[in-house]
Amino acid sequence: MIDHVSxxxxxxERAARFYEVTLAALGLSRLVTRPATVxxxxxxxxxxxxxxANMAPVEEGSGxxxxxxxKSSDEVDAFHAAAVRAGARSDGGPGIRPHDRVKYYAAFVVxxxxxxxxxxxFPTE
Length: 125
Description:
It contains two helices and eight strands; from the N terminus they run E-H-E-E-E-E-H-E-E-E. Helix 1 (12-24) packs antiparallel against helix 2. It has helices at 12-24, 73-85; strands at 5-9, 29-34, 37-41, 45-51, 65-69, 89-97, 104-110, 116-121.
């Protein structure tokens, strides 16, 4: 249903370095680099960061929330660890999240610009 998403960042190079490390854990890499935007994906850019140099700092708890699909709980773990090493704040470590309709395994981080990024998988066992 959704073809691609984008988040605003105040420092494009800092954010590109952060997302290169973080998204690599999910099999995404930098595919497009332009003066004010960078696109990451597997076959085509699915996740974009866009320079908004004059953007006000995002108030805690009010940033964008993007959820990216992982193939396994190991990928979710790797995503979280890579993001925290790259400068993210953990906003919910890897683990099972019970839900009324489905069991899922996820981790949440807040990027250096205040965007909340999640990785999720749906374990079969």
